[in-house]
Amino acid sequence: MRRYETDSPQAAGRVLALAMVVDGNLAQSELAALDSSKILQHIELDQDAFQLLLQELCQDMLTSAFHGEVRIDGAMLDGLLDEIRHPDLRRRLMQAMWRIADADGWLADAEAVLLARASTLWCAETNFSGRVLAEA
C-alpha cells in the first residue's frame, strides 16, 4: 500500500475512498454524499485527484487479493488511519465517512468495521469522547 504524508490531502482522500469501496460496491449515492459533504474542498483535493486516489487504492487493494478476494487486515487499516493525526481533520473525515456509509441506506459489515476502527483509534489518541462530554 502506498504511503502518504501525514494529514495530506492524499492521505485524507484515500480514507474517504476506502469508505466508498470497502463494502465492495461503489454506489452513485456514495459519490453524491461525498460531493454534498464538501469534504474534498476542505482537504483541498479536486475531483480528478480524488478519482486518481480511488483508482490507486483499488490497484493497491488488488495486489493484496487472495484467491480473488480483497482483504484489508487490521495492521494495514491501522496504517491508513494513522496517516491522519490532526483532531479536526479526523472529526471531519469521520462525519464524511458516516455520510458515505449511510448514503445507500445500508451499513455493510465492512463499513461498520472501518467506522468502528477509525472511531476507536482516533478517539483513543485525540480524546474525542472526553472533549465531547466536557463540551456537552
Describe the protein in words.
This protein is mostly helical and 136 residues long. Helix content is 70%, strand content 0%. It has eight helices and no strands. Helix 1 packs across helix 4 (47-63), helix 2 (28-37) runs antiparallel to helix 6 (87-102) and helix 6 runs antiparallel to helix 7. The longest helix has 18 residues, at 109-126. The chain is globular, with a radius of gyration of 14 Å. Mean pLDDT is 88; it is low at 129-136. InterPro entries: DjlA_N (IPR007791), TerB-like (IPR029024). This is TerB family tellurite resistance protein.
Tell me briefly what this model is:
The protein is an all-alpha fold. Helix content is 70%, strand content 0%.
Helix share, percent: 55-70%
Please state the average pLDDT score: 88
Low-confidence stretches: 129-136
Strand content of the residues, in percent? under 5%
Multimerization state = single chain
Count of alpha and pi helical runs: 8
Domain Co-chaperone DjlA N-terminal: 14-120
Pfam family, one: TerB
Protein name: TerB family tellurite resistance protein
